[in-house]
Design brief:
It is found in: Cytoplasm; Endomembrane system; Endosome. By secondary structure, the chain is of the alpha+beta class. It contains six helices and five strands; from the N terminus they run αβββαααααββ. It has a domain of 143 residues: Phox-like domain (PX Domain). The protein is 32% helix and 18% strand.
Length: 208
């Protein structure tokens, strides 16, 4: 039995990548950046073996706070520090933030205790907003955690994004498709390209 478990641990993998930053214009004066989180795994801990979602920095802060509640005396990995002078147009700052976010997720995913938190799985593999993640994790939605993940509209396949359909959000009376995008990712228009063609850094768009 021990040899079987040892072989399983050697072959099991979880690969996470934070990439492809996008600038979103909230209104005339406010913008924000979100990041693509692509996950590939053969771990039995995950219902979907490939997935791709978009999250922003403040949502990572929320996730760490949630995990902290379950971590007890365990020391959680740090997020990249909030920078009051963070510039959305500074490629170096954005690159460093993505590396920090990816390092945070890698540490979390290699901590077995944290993998039992359903909010982590919804954060990584569903399109639900933070508010809906909280409600779903506490059983206050008509769909289960597994259903929310399975209905996610994005799937990561061999480096490309395939958008599929998903069922309606049972709590929405005005929409007939989708479980809802992040409440912090407004869709008042198409997201703006993060870099102009003249200052795009090709290294930044690789899996960091």
């Amino acid at each position: 039995m021990d040899s079987m478990l040892e072989n399983l641990s050697k072959t099991e993998f979880i690969s996470i990548c934070v990439q492809n930053p996008r600038l979103h214009k909230d209104d005339l004066w406010h913008t924000h950046v979100d990041y693509e989180i692509c996950l590939q795994t053969n771990s039995m801990c995950f219902r979907k073996k490939t997935s791709c979602v978009r999250r922003r920095y403040s949502e990572f802060v929320w996730l760490r706070h949630c995990l902290e509640q379950n971590a007890l005396i365990m020391e959680l990995p740090k997020l990249p520090h909030w920078n009051p002078f963070f510039s959305l147009r500074n490629t170096e700052q954005v690159s460093q933030r993505m590396k920090g976010l990816q390092g945070f997720l890698e540490s979390v995913l290699h901590t077995p205790l944290l993998l039992s938190d359903s909010r982590l799985h919804l954060f990584l593999q569903s399109d639900l907003s933070i508010t809906k993640i909280e409600r779903c994790a506490h059983g206050k939605t008509r769909y289960t955690v597994a259903e929310a993940i399975q209905r996610s509209s994005r799937v990561y396949i061999s480096g490309s994004e395939d958008k599929g359909s998903c069922d309606s959000d049972c709590e929405s009376s005005s929409s007939s498709s989708g479980l809802g995008l992040s409440v912090d990712t407004p869709m008042r228009g198409s997201p703006l390209p993060f870099y102009e063609s003249s200052d795009r850094d090709p290294e930044l768009f690789r899996c960091l």
